[in-house]
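Continuing the batch. This is chain 6 of the set; chains 1 through 5 are on the previous pages. Same settings as before, nothing changed between runs. Recording input and output for traceability.
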Amino acid sequence: MKMSYRMQKNLLIVGFLIVPLALLVTFSFYPAIKLIYYSFTSWDGLSQQYPWVGWTNYTTIFTDPQLFGSFLHNFSYFIGGLIQNVVALYFAVLLSSKLKGRSFFRATLFLPYMLNAVAVAFIFKFLYLDGGALDTLLQSLGLGFLQHDWIGNDSIVNWALAFVSLWEFFGFNMVIYLAALQSIPEELHEAAALDGAGRFRTFWYIIMPNLRAIIQINLLLTVSGALEAFNIPFVMTNGSPPTATFLINTMNVAFTFNNYGLASAMAIVLLVIVFLVITVQQRLVGGGKDVV
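Output for chain 6:
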């Protein structure tokens, strides 16, 4: 049977789209629909019965301080992420200049990101021990008054854990900023130098506008990572109540208390909050269009 060129083209397009669309529906759309359905039930994860409870799970989330209140534990990771971006941008600007040994410093600062996340958590777990390496270092520097029970003190434990996240992911953000800085045309720096612009003016009027899109991407990763913090508090404190993030509580509700309906509702709430926060962030930061 003869087919026109247009029909052959359409059949070819459909043929290439069938497999990815089938995978997308099977592993993304269908599980998402089932997750929404489970969130309105009290399913225990094993039985074939799905008792309908309506909006009860969502009401429980917003009225139980142990569930929704755990977002306060994520706040330290958010602040740590903001500091992480500032420090990463500073070192990226510093290492993009003609600094002697800059390749060595780039590799050294990027090294923590290459380490296994669980290994990093265990390293800092021993570092934070009462009388451990950190306290010994502070004592030797004459800063013994700064010694604390870093993990056992509820008032500072989340900030101590947030620092671990900052140390681990700082190198990744720095490399992203370095790549963006190297894409800025050298002519802009030369023009700024001819006009007598100093380092601060060059940074503020040349570098920052051209990094707007990259800053927005890194902030997006920072916000989503802070809201979904899991491995560091889980490994270092076993997800104890003072450090349990919203995601850890979601996992506990599902796999410890076998309440998959409530856990599904918590997953939906987390997804909606991430979406809302990222939308607000995009409004504040801007569209991120390339200036160059």
